[in-house]
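Annotated sample (chain length 208).
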Amino acid sequence: MKLGKSWWWMGVIVSLAAAMTGCGDNSNVNGAVASLSISPTSPTISVGGSQSFTATATFNDGTAAQDVTSTSTWSSSITTVATISGSVAKAVSAGESTITATYTQGTNSVDASTNLVVVSAQSAVRDGIARVVFGGVPNGALTGATMDGAQIEEAPRGSSLAIDTISGVHKFVSPNGRHTFLLNLRADAVYTFAVLPDGQMELADSRD
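Output written by the structure step:
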C-alpha cells in the first residue's frame, strides 16, 4: 500500500514538471528567432526632438516577420546625447549615439543597432528647411516608399503630400524598391516627386 502511494506522488510530480516545460517569456510558436532589424536606420533629429523606432523579428522556420517593438529591450550608448524610453529616443545634446534593441525568446537572444544623429537646434535653423512634395498620389501608391529608411505616410487619393525636412543629404526609395534617390536638398528649395500606380517614382521638378 505504501509503495502504491509513492508511485502515485511520483506521477503527480512528473505531470507538473511536464506542464511547466516550455513556459517562459516571449515564447513564440513560429519557431526560434533568427534575426532582428530596426527602423528607421540612421535618422537625424535636432536637440529636444524625439524619434520612435520599430523592431522586427524573423524566425528560422520561414514564418512571417513579427513586430516585437514592445517586447524588446532598448538602450542608448551615450545617454548624454540621447536617452530612450521604451522605443522612443529623446535628443539631449548634439552628437551621435547607438540605439540598440534586444529581443529575447526563451534562451535565444538577438539584437540590432542603428545610429541616431542629433544636431543642435541652431544648426537646424542655419541649415534651413527644404520641402519634398509627392504629387498626385494614387490611392495606396506610397506604400513601401521610404525617406531615410522611414516609411512615408500615405496621402489621400489623388492629393499631394508635402514633407518639410532639414536641408542636406537624404535618401528616398520608391514604393517598388527599384529606384533610389540620394539628394542633397537645398534650404528653401522644393523637390517634387511623381508617384506612379505601378510603384515607380521619379523626380519631376526641383526649384528654389
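Annotation: Residues 12-25 have pLDDT under 50 and may be disordered.
Annotation: Residues 174 and 206 are 17 Å apart (CA to CA).
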